[in-house]
Design brief:
Radius of gyration: 22 Å
Number of strands: 25
Largest sheet: 7 strands, parallel
Number of helices: 15
Mean pLDDT: 97
Strand order of the largest sheet: 4-3-2-1-5-7-10
Low-confidence stretches: none
Structural class: alpha/beta
């Protein structure tokens, strides 16, 4: 028997036993997004009656987040580094908190003990012949949390895809819980005609040999639909999803012309369906690395022809982007948007693109605005923004005066709102 096999048996406990190590007042970091160790989260939540002031910290939650439900606030306080569907109400009602931060800098918060980590809950694959386990689909901040935590509790799930890149040895895990379960899935967004028009325009801006960063949602998925016919595209992205698989099968994405990490996909986490998870499982061309590498603007900028594609909720006439708030309510977070915009701006031949439909609320509200909603934050500054794309066109704001910007932004707004935007721009001295 190998040494690691003995270690494995000695560290094996039930989920109930593992979460007994968590004390009131601890900060517990949970593995990210679809990589969430659901069995451990539920086991911890079942202790709500005997715990108080446990802070549960993570970015977007893709599970049900039982700790954020009404009545749990005395036991658990959720600290969101990015707001998700299952935690949004708790934050809006003051039962949970949001911490603004760039994705690339989250690992430093843990490593430098700005946010000291008492316990990390993560999900890993079974060990290989040397006793190393893959982080599966969540390296991002999870690696730094595991390196920084006082106690590391890992759910071993045989259904978790094994990816290359970030690994953890059994010697660095304190407690192991064997629990196989289906991985959380992200279903593809609904692509309508507006998204198709935006996707077609962005695809025309992507040259052969480009390296792509794609965000989450219907617009990035729509872009992928129109990249058929392109040659030798590559991926260096904080995440990617199912649509990439189709372009690999079509020979569009080869990664062979990437100027950094050629011939491999590089991401920091993954979200998709079983289609994606089967594609990445034991695929030597897929590597996951921590966010302080993948999202580092310096690393991003070393790629030639780096194309960054992100979305927004609003863009004002000066080019300021609100990608995270509806009024004063925190809807999502900044994630890696600024990381990649700044990285792409350093790239030789690179482009950063903010894409959004022109309207919301069934066409009754313009998303191109004279000024951002009261209470909303500026996610990406006007100094950083390059291209803005809507279904009515694309504009490059670089080098444009405020007057030129306002005129250009109005031209890609919905026609129904252009007259009012012009009047507002004149009142603000922008036209």
């Amino acid at each position: 028997m190998k040494e690691w096999q003995t270690t494995y048996r000695h560290k094996l406990v039930s989920a109930f036993e593992a979460v007994q190590k968590i004390k009131s007042g601890d900060r517990v970091v949970v593995g990210h997004a679809c990589g969430e160790p659901q069995a451990l989260v539920y086991a911890l939540t079942e202790r709500y009656h005997e715990l108080c002031d446990v802070e549960i910290t993570h970015m977007v939650a893709m599970g049900n987040s039982p700790y954020a439900q009404p009545g749990m606030e005395n036991s658990f306080r959720h600290n969101a580094l990015f707001v998700g569907r299952s935690t949004r109400q708790a934050i809006a009602e003051g039962r949970a908190d949001y911490t603004p931060c760039f994705f690339s800098e989250i690992p430093r918060l843990f490593k430098e003990k700005i946010l000291p980590v008492q316990v990390v809950l993560l999900q890993i694959t079974p060990p290989d012949e040397q006793g190393f386990c893959s982080y599966g689909i969540s390296a991002d901040y999870t690696v730094a949390a595991a390196q920084s935590a006082d106690i590391v509790i890992a759910q071993v799930n045989r259904r978790l895809p094994r990816t290359q890149g970030a690994k953890i040895h059994l010697n660095h895990v304190d407690y192991l819980v064997e629990q196989d379960e289906e991985i959380v899935e992200l279903l593809p967004g609904k692509i309508g005609e507006v998204e198709r028009r935006i996707g077609r325009q962005i695809a025309e801006m992507v040259p052969d040999g480009a390296t792509l960063q794609l965000g989450i949602g219907a617009i990035p998925d729509a872009v992928l639909l129109f990249l058929q016919g392109k040659k030798d595209l590559g991926i260096h992205s904080e995440m990617f999803s199912d649509g990439v698989v189709d372009l690999v099968n079509a020979g569009v994405i080869t990664n062979c012309r990437k100027s950094q990490n050629p011939n491999v996909f590089v991401a920091t986490f993954l979200m998709g369906t079983r289609k994606l998870y089967d594609f990445i499982d034991q695929n030597p061309q897929v590597q996951l690395h921590p966010a302080d590498y993948v999202n580092d603007p310096y690393i991003i900028g070393k790629h030639e022809l780096m194309i960054s594609i992100n979305s927004a909720l609003q863009v004002d006439l000066m080019g300021q982007v609100n990608a995270e708030m509806i009024g004063s309510n925190q809807f999502s977070g900044i994630g890696g948007q600024v990381d990649f915009i700044r990285g792409a701006s350093r790239s030789l031949g690179g482009k950063s693109i903010i894409a959004l439909p022109t309207t919301a609320a069934k066409g009754t509200v313009s998303r191109i605005v004279a000024e951002l909603d009261q209470g909303s934050a500026v996610s990406t500054s006007r100094n950083d923004v390059q291209y803005v794309v809507t279904e009515y066109g694309a504009v490059d704001l670089r080098g444009k005066t405020l007057r030129q910007r306002a005129a250009a932004m109005i031209e890609i707004a919905h026609p129904d709102f252009r007259p009012n935007l012009r009047e507002q721009a004149k009142m603000k001295g922008l036209l």
